[in-house]
Amino acid sequence: IIRTIAGDICAALAHCHGHGIVHGDVKPGNLLVSYSGIVRLCDFGLSQRTGPDHDQNNDTTLPVPPRGLCTLYYRPPEVLLGTTEVHTSMDMYSAGTVVAELLTGRVLFAGRNVLDQICQVCNVLGTPDVSTWPEAMTLPDYSKLNFTPKKRQRWE
């Protein structure tokens, strides 16, 4: 069942991304399941259009909207660290945390605030550094934090 749900989530995002839309708030509350078991992605309130027709730079990134992006538990690390761009990969990160929640029965990263959320992510995925995620060093809020080096945990 989880494989089918995960497949439906990925298919919905592939459809959105294929049509130049970043959903921006993938979470369990924005997934509807029909009586026949079909999963639908809903609530496009934080979505944005992207792609060549909508971005003068012919890139697939957009500025983060002033109202924010994504519910805290499902927010990608680059958003937590202050990125100024929106990209389809953010939806995929959020989808991954939703699937992890389906597999474990609990929220993967349940931070109380942005700082706690960053700590929770680093405790599991490891501390970002030049070798694992060089782009992190360029994010606006990265230099505001003093990360204690942690290695990525193995999933059992």
UniProtKB/TrEMBL annotation:
The keyword Nucleotide-binding applies. One of its GO terms (cellular component) is nucleus. One of its GO terms (molecular function) is cyclin binding. Its EC number is 2.7.11.22. It holds the Pfam family Pkinase. It is an enzyme of class 2 (transferase). Residues 1-156 form the Protein kinase domain. InterPro entries: CDK, Kinase-like_dom_sf, Prot_kinase_dom, Ser/Thr_kinase_AS. One of its GO terms (biological process) is signal transduction. Keywords: ATP-binding, Kinase, Nucleotide-binding, Serine/threonine-protein kinase, Transferase. The keyword Transcription regulation does not apply. Belongs to the protein kinase superfamily. CMGC Ser/Thr protein kinase family. CDC2/CDKX subfamily. May form a complex composed of at least the catalytic subunit CRK2 and a cyclin. This is Cyclin-dependent kinase 2 homolog. It comes from Phaeodactylum tricornutum (strain CCAP 1055/1).
